[in-house]
């Protein structure tokens, strides 16, 4: 009988021990180290998907820690050393399994100041450039997802296809170190086409000064938004908070590399989606965590970019308009216009332009007779435009009453040999008093 009891007791211990060990197993601890503020919308999109993907794979046995360095506003050794000392005190008794620097600045901070805090802890870079491109050697246990130094080249290529008549590139950048790195990458992308496109860099200006300069740039310009986290006055920004104002002020199309900027008026580019990157970075972190002893780190990989997403079916706008009756044309003018107004769809007219226009509240506050006086008596819209008929076919579509983002959609068709005449026509219209009431326009050229 004692022997039976002893065997039963051993069996009970054997059945309980694995479960007890599993319950006491230490959770996997992941530190997210943000170079900027973690509550920025793009970072929230990234982190939400990253956390959810890791939890779905590893279950509840994972703990997340996060720190925001806010390097645009607090940078330099005099700020970084005390912060590193704080982290050393904070995490001295907490074993972190993976450090995830989010951005090149966070990687630099981790490499330069936190070696003693997280010695031999795997590092997974997110949303950055390669350490070599940032001028430093990678940590010993390093992998990550990064953008190559040539990351602006696909966006510039797309812009040149959409604007084959562009004569210059304007690059927009802020005054911070991350802004400067992005500007340098954009300038490098333009280097290959410097013989055909003039380059202008607008960097380190105050936001107000930048907006004023963008309103005066030539129409045949490609505007590349590099980054704008710190302006010339030292004011810090989340780029998402200013990109809409920049796109609206610019007299030429603006291109960027972040998908969430597209809904703010940016034409598009070879764009990065932060939520998608959250998922892909999480999968790389999981591979790091699940390595067998002695297994090397997974190889680093490039950020996922989707060239042309903003110019495809995703679109920036869905524009609608109606061809209503003429509202500012009087009978004698119509009599002269009808015989020389060409139809749309002529075989030789293989080039076209769409210019959506929005007029200011001041224009719509004027009574009809005052708008007519500005339109024709002082701006000579009809009289001076007749000289371009029938070379240029044009139609006006009304969109204001349809809840559209623009009041009018203006459509032009012309043969390639009349492209110069079209440029002269729109240049003339933009120089007149009527155009001072236009507070937003976007010009798009097409060909077949």
Molecular structure report:
This protein is an alpha/beta fold and 448 residues long. The chain has three domains: 28-145 and 276-300, Rossmann fold, CATH 3.40.50; 153-256, Rossmann fold, CATH 3.40.50.1460; 331-447, Alpha-Beta Plaits, CATH 3.30.70. 37% of the residues lie in helices and 20% in strands. The chain has helices spanning 2-24, 41-58, 77-91, 104-113, 153-162, 177-190, 207-215, 239-249, 274-289, 331-337, 361-365, 368-378, 381-385, 419-430; strands spanning 28-34, 62-68, 98-102, 123-129, 142-147, 168-173, 198-203, 221-227, 254-255, 270-271, 301-302, 306-307, 351-359, 393-398, 408-414, 438-441, 444-447. A six-stranded parallel beta sheet has the order 2-1-3-4-5-11. β3 (98-102), α4 (104-113) and β4 form a beta-alpha-beta unit. α2 runs parallel beside α9 (274-289) and α7 (207-215) packs parallel to α8 (239-249). The longest helix has 23 residues, at 2-24. The chain starts with a helix and ends with a strand. 31% of the residues are buried. Residues 1-23 and 308-316 have low confidence and may be disordered.
Number of domains: 3
- The strand line-up of the biggest sheet is 2-1-3-4-5-11
* Relative helix content: 25-40%
Distance between the termini: 96 Å
CATH architecture of the largest domain: 3-Layer(aba) Sandwich
Overall pLDDT metric: 84
Largest sheet: 6 strands, parallel
- Number of DSSP-assigned strands: 17
The assigned structural class equals alpha/beta
């Amino acid at each position: 009988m004692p022997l039976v009891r002893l065997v039963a007791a051993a069996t009970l211990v054997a059945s309980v021990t694995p479960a007890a060990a599993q319950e006491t197993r230490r959770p996997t601890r992941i530190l997210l180290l943000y170079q900027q503020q973690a509550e920025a919308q793009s970072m929230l999109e990234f982190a939400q998907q990253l956390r959810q993907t890791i939890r779905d794979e590893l279950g509840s046995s994972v703990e997340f820690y996060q720190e925001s360095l806010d390097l645009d506003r607090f940078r330099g050794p005099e700020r970084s050393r005390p912060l590193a000392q704080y982290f050393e005190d904070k995490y001295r008794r907490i074993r972190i399994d993976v450090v995830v620097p989010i951005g090149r600045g966070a990687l630099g901070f981790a490499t330069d100041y936190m070696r003693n805090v997280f010695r031999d802890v795997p590092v997974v870079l997110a949303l950055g450039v390669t350490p070599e491109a940032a001028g430093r050697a990678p940590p010993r246990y390093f992998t990550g997802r990064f953008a190559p130094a040539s990351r602006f080249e696909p966006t510039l290529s797309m812009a040149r296809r959409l604007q084959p008549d562009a004569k210059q590139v304007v690059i927009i950048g802020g005054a911070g170190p991350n802004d400067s790195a992005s500007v340098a990458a954009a300038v490098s992308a333009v280097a290959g086409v410097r013989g055909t496109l003039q380059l202008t860099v607008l960097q380190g200006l105050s936001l107000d000064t930048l907006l004023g300069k963008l309103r005066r740039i030539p129409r045949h310009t490609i505007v590349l938004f590099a980054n704008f986290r710190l302006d010339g006055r030292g004011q810090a920004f989340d780029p998402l908070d200013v990109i809409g104002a920049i796109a609206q002020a610019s007299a030429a199309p603006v291109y960027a590399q972040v998908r969430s900027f597209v809904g703010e008026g940016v034409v598009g580019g070879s764009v990065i989606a932060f939520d998608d990157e959250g998922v892909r970075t999480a999968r790389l972190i999981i591979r790091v965590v699940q390595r067998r002893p002695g297994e090397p780190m997974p190889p680093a990989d490039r950020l996922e970019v989707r060239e042309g997403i903003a110019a495809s079916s995703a679109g920036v706008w869905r524009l609608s308009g109606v061809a209503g009756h003429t509202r500012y044309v009087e009978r004698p003018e119509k009599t002269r216009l009808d015989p020389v107004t060409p139809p749309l769809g002529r075989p030789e007219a293989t080039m076209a332009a769409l210019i959506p226009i929005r007029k200011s509240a001041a224009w719509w506050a004027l009574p009809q007779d005052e708008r007519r006086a500005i339109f024709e008596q002082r701006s000579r819209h009809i009289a001076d435009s007749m000289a371009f008929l029938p070379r240029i076919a044009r139609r006006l579509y009304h969109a204001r009453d349809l809840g559209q983002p623009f009041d009018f959609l203006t459509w032009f068709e012309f043969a390639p040999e009349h492209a110069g005449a079209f440029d002269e026509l729109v240049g003339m219209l933009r120089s007149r008093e009527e155009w001072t009431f236009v507070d937003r326009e976007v010009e798009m050229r097409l060909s077949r």
